[in-house]
Structure formats: C-alpha cells, structure tokens
Model the fold of this input.
Amino acid sequence: MSVAVLGNGVRATPEIRCENLTLGFDGHPAVHHLHGAIAPGALLAIVGPNGSGKTTLLRGLMGQLAPLGGRVVSDRSAFAYLPQQAGLDRAFPLTVRELVTLGAWRSIGLFRRVGRDVEDSVTAALGAVGLTGFDARPIDKLSGGQLQRALFARVIVQDEPVILLDEPFNAVDRRTSADLMRLIHTWHRDGRTVIAVLHDIGLARAAFPESLLLAREPVAWGATCDVLTDRNLARADAMAEQWDEGAAECEIAPDHSNTHSAHDDHLGHGDGAIAHVHAHPHVQVTGQPPRQPEPVAAASIAMPQGAKRRSAG
Amino acid sequence: MSELYSLLIAPFVEFAFMRRALAGVVALSVGAAPVGVFLMLRRMSLVGDAMACAILPGAAIGYLLFGLAVLPMTFGGLVVGVFVAVAAGFVARTTVQLEDASLAAFYLISLSLGVAIISIRGSSVDLMQVLFGSVLAIDDTSLMVLGASATVTLLTLAVIYRALVAECVDQAFLRAVGGPSAATHFAFLVLVVVNLVAGFLALGTLLAVGLMMLPAAAARFWVRGLGATLALSIALALAASISGLLISYYVTIASGPAITLVAGFIYIASLVVGREAGWVVGLKPQKHRVA
Done:
C-alpha cells in the first residue's frame, strides 16, 4: 500500500494523477482527455507517432504548460526533468562539470556555495555515466552521446524520486543507449518513477514494463505487451496529426475536473495504471472497443492515500 | 619616456574635462562590457541596438520638459527603455510573435517618436548631442549616473550570475527546478537598459551599444571560458575608451565615434589574428592529438 520509499529512504515517490487532462495550443488539443494515474515506482514509456502530444504531455506534467482542461495532481517538487537537447544552447562556454553541477540547483540555489557533498555527487555522477575526466571539457566539444551522458549525470545529481525524460535516446548510438538504459533500470530498482518519451517502439517493448500510447487521444495505457500491439499502433498512426481549424468544440464533460467523483470511483478500484480511453465523437475509432489492460506490476496497484496534493490549476 | 608621458598621460593631468571623460568611460566599460558578453551569448546582439533606440523618446520627453539636463533625460530613458523591454517580452510570451519582431516594431516606433519630440523644440545641435553624445562634456551629474550604472550592473550580475548562466544554457531545465527564469531574464533586460542609458550620456543614442557589443565580440576570438571572456571584454573596452579619448583629443574628431572606432578596430584585429577561431589560426594546418 502507501508510497514507495527510495533506497536511501529519504524521500517518498509521489503518485502522478492526470484528471481528465487536456493540453494543447490555441484551443486545439495535443493531449485530449487523459485520465489515469502513474503509480509510484512505475517505469513508463510514452510512445506515439510524431505530433501525438508526447512532449506536450511531459511539459504538462512538469507544469510548464497550463492545461486547457482538467489537471495534474502530484508533488512537482519531486520531479527531475531532462528536456530535449534541442532546447540546450551548446555554444555557451560552460564546462561539463558546471553543467552537471546545475543539477544541484534545488540545494545550491542562486547563492549557496557548492559544497563538498555536491562536488562529490557530481564526481560520482560523472563516473556513473562514463564521463570521468571530462570535467573541464567545454560542452560544445562533446558529441551528441557524450552530451546526453552529461545530462543524465545532471539528473543523477538532481536525485529526485520522479524522473521525466524527453526523448533521451535521440541521436544517441546503441552503446550509449544501452548504458543509459542501465541507469534507468537502476533508478527503477531504487523505487523511483521514470517516465520517458520514446520514439523507439522496440526499446519500449524491450525495457519498459508499462507504456502509454498516445495519438492525441490516449490509445492505450497499461502493460507494454498489451499496449504496443500492432493493432493499437495502426490505430495510433491513423489518429495522429488531425489538426482541423474548424473542429467543433469538444463536448465531453467540460467541468469534469471540478466534480471528479465519477472518476475517483474509477481510480478507487486499485487498477492504478489504467487509462480512461473513450470513443470520441470527432475522432473515428475503428475496430475494437476501448480495452482496459490488466494491471502491471505490484507498484502500479499501490495507491497512495496521503499524496492528494493539488499542484496545478 | 617623457615623450610617452606627454603623449599619453599629460592630457589627463592638464585638463579636468579629460579626467572626467576618463572616469566616465572607465565606469561605462566596466558595466557595459559584461552585459554585452551575455547579450552576445544569448544571441541578442542586435537587441542592444534596438533598445538603444527605444530609450530615445524617454530622454526626449525629459529634454522637452527640462531642456538638456542629465537627470530628467536619464530618468525618462530608463522608464521608457524598461517599458519597451517588458512590453516586447510580454508580446513575445503572450502572442505568436517572436521577441525580435516585437522589439523591432517597438524600437522603430520609439526612435521616430523620440526624434519627433526633439524636433518640436530642439536645435540640430541638441539633436546631434542626443544622437552622438558628448563624452568630453561630462559633468558631475553625468559622472554620478555612470558610476551608479556600473555599480548597479556589477552587483546585479553578481546576484543573478548563476541563474543567468543556467537560463542561457538550458531555460527549460531552470524552470523545471523552480529557478527564477523569467525574473532573471527581466533583471538582465533592465541591466541592458541601464547601461544603454549610461552609454547614451557618454556616447549618444546611436553609439551607446558600441562599448557593449564590440569588446564582447572581440573577446570571444581570444578566450574560451565565460569568466575569461567577461574579464577580457572589460579590458578591451577600457583600452578602446582610453585610446579613443586620446585620439579624439589629438585629432579633434568626436569622442563617441573615436572610441567606437577603436573598439571596432580591436574587433577586426581579433577577427583576423585571434587565438580562438580567428582567420589566421583557421588557415594554419592544425596538429591533432592521438585521442
């Protein structure tokens, strides 16, 4: 039952609950009526075609994008975030060690001295990602894979119970992927929640016990073997990238997030990682009826009772 | 030796106006150059130009009401400059328009408004002074303003340094860890305005950016680290201002253009012979390591 505790026993891993969450731009949804919970300790891949709202969902979870509807309930102060490399200014004259040390922002802030403990954790993190000796290397002299290793080291220094990774294996070779994947599994064993946006369906199948298949609508959410079926993937491809300027306004439960009793019910059954996937009036869903995959790991069933802190509007 | 003294030192010893000018440009160099380095690293090099024009209507309103007086013009410039910076940032954050486009719009409006206001009342001599400054006619009030600007700049940079670096490198990350991303950005824009107003007193509207951007751009051709770039940019700005003053003293060309031209010469020289990525270095066949 209750919240998972990390290996070092310091901080509890919070649940992340999406309540009828709709995210998007200019009133057009990029993530549409997502409803469900990510249990503490989950190792979840978010997959889907281009433009299916994966990165948008991650930004919504981080609170960097205000929802068009619904909300995210979790403790964001426990989140570590690895943005896409594209947002990083690699020309800036910063060394690898300085970049990784920024991971300690929550403890050093604007002014506090970078103490011995932070220095040690940076050194250890650089070792863990295989960048020992790269301390003084400017970041513009790193290869794509080395930069990604440095950014993973920054996540290690952040040492948060929830880790969100946006396309962590983009432009990274096979060996680096394998090394970084081992790190992710270490985090998983520590009891941390790891959520990764992925392009590589094969990697999701091989290494992630749970998956959320997005195509603007949540197509399926649950155990990876049930979610990433050929049939679901074909449906996702068909549904992706519908951007209709004149699309009618969505009529689905507009004030749902205020009166979420109906779905509290839904969540209360203990099937933590289940999406509320509904047939939608203006999206053509062909074939099978929405299915609810079986619960996955023991961690997914654990429903924290205490962590119902509202952190987003 | 005595020749060197009479050439380089004597003008400052003999004339009070040269000493004032010296103090003024030293203060300006110390404040403006590091701000220029961050502008350059944030790929906002041209923002300085736009903002320099944006402060003009404020200064012009001060001029309209109080004549050619330092404090009203300074205050007006600060208020309007900060307003334009915030407005451009606000437009960028709330509409689809990018910050450079909104800034371009605001600065064009500001520049025409400023010149229009000055032409209501002023002579062309006044207009020339506003546009090109008068470093050799710096009075006590101007000196105070320049000193205050340098002080505020260095203190603020010391406070926001870590956040500013994080903001430049990885804004999404800084926001994710709850760092003061927007506050840092605005504080930095205010610093840009403060230094442009200071530069405006010494070098005039059009050249206020000169001591900000040229030394920063030149420094990048010599050193790699951020600390070294900041230090070198200040040193180059000091060299440019002092030699510019002397050239202006001997050759009787306006001091603002003289200083900016020297800074420009330093930039071009660095571009050609600079150690990091200068042209000459690029021509030499490079040795490489085994790993």
Observations:
- Chain A touches chain B through 27 residues (CB under 8 Å).
- The longest helix of chain A spans residues 174-190.
